[in-house]
Amino acid sequence: MTKYILSVDGGGIRGIIPAIILAEIESRTKKPISQIFDLMAGTSTGGIVVAGLCKKDQQGNPQYSANDLVELYQEYGSYIFKSSFLRRSIFSWLNCAQYPHKNIESVLDKYFGDDTLQNTLSNVLITSYDIYNNCPFFFKSWKEGNIKLKDALRATTAAPTYFIPKHLKINQTDRVLIDGGVFANNPSACAYANSKKLFPNEEIVLVSIGTGRLSNRIKYRKLGKIAWIKPLLNVMFASSLDVVNYQMSNVMDDRYIRIQSQLTIASAEMDNVTPENIKCLQQEANAMIEGNQKVIDKFCDIVS
């Protein structure tokens, strides 16, 4: 039996792109995403997408559709990335965070409440990095199931310089967790490795959805240490996408489906939440669907 795996990249507000693509898949297959995929992995904003699609309502059905998550980005993106000028320009260098964590925490609480990982409709894998113990940390619904979804999502979205880390005590171990994008902005390889453990005798098909490739070039000039922080963060997040894509294409061949494209009109900035840019991101998503029409058609035909 074939097992279908979903992987969703990080990218801040650009998470609206995979949400729109997954809404298209739900529309074509007439199935909720949680009924299509046996394991769903996400990094940062991708974690919000997969967790949202796997959250149960009181009747045990999916509480949110992919379209509901599109609305999350439209309605709350500007609130999550809301900050005063002083905080952005001065205080961010003092406390290492441009944005107050209370905003994103209130949105996560609104959407996920006190639900735990073990209560999800499909197997869920969410990436983060533990800067206290210097190691990757994976939230797995089949292993760390008693952890609240909102805490796991707060950890995976704690992008350095954007939000402060998330402190959690897990199995008597203190952890200080940041965005999983620092090592796995495309979590496909992590998803594949875990799928081989969960489904050792099954064929694996992995669908990996990006949030748009960055087109901004970094112009070399003599920069101070502080000025290099954000460009280096962008390089770190973007470079891992290409490496993982190369690896997975060679390991899985045509069983690895990558839906991604270059951003042409939208900003690549994770925190550009202007109404104009959100509209551009929606246009980018529709263009991505159009450009991957044959791949999406074939996949939807198979799983319908």
Describe the structure.
The chain has 304 residues and is an alpha/beta fold. It has a single domain, classed as Cytosolic phospholipase A2 catalytic domain. Helices cover 48% and strands 16% of the residues. It is built from 12 helices and 8 strands. Strands 1, 2, 3, 4, 5, 6, 7 and 8 form an 8-stranded mixed β-sheet that branches. A hairpin with a 2-residue loop joins strand 5 and strand 6. Helix 1 packs antiparallel against helix 4, helix 1 crosses helix 11 and helix 6 runs antiparallel to helix 7. The longest helix has 28 residues. The protein is globular. 46% of the residues are buried.
Please write out the topology.
Layout (H helix, E strand, L loop, with lengths): L1 E7 L7 H14 L3 H4 L2 E4 L2 H10 L11 H15 L4 H11 L5 H12 L10 E8 L4 E6 L8 H8 L9 E5 L2 E7 L1 H4 L3 H11 L4 E7 L15 H28 L3 E4 L15 H17 L1 H11 L1
Parallel strand pairs: 1-2, 1-7, 2-3, 7-8
Antiparallel strand pairs: 3-4, 3-6, 5-6
Key phrases:
304 residues; eight-stranded mixed beta sheet; 12 helices; hydrolase; lipid degradation
Summed up:
Belongs to the patatin family. The protein is of the alpha/beta class.
Q: Any idea what the CATH superfamily is called?
A: Cytosolic phospholipase A2 catalytic domain
What is the residue-mean pLDDT, rounded to a whole number? 91
Strand-residue proportion = 15-25%
Q: Largest sheet at a glance? A: 8 strands, mixed
Unreliable spans: none
User: What is the approximate shape?
Assistant: globular
Organism: Wolbachia pipientis
Motif (GXSXG): 42-46
Domain PNPLA: 6-192
Keywords: Hydrolase, Lipid degradation, Lipid metabolism
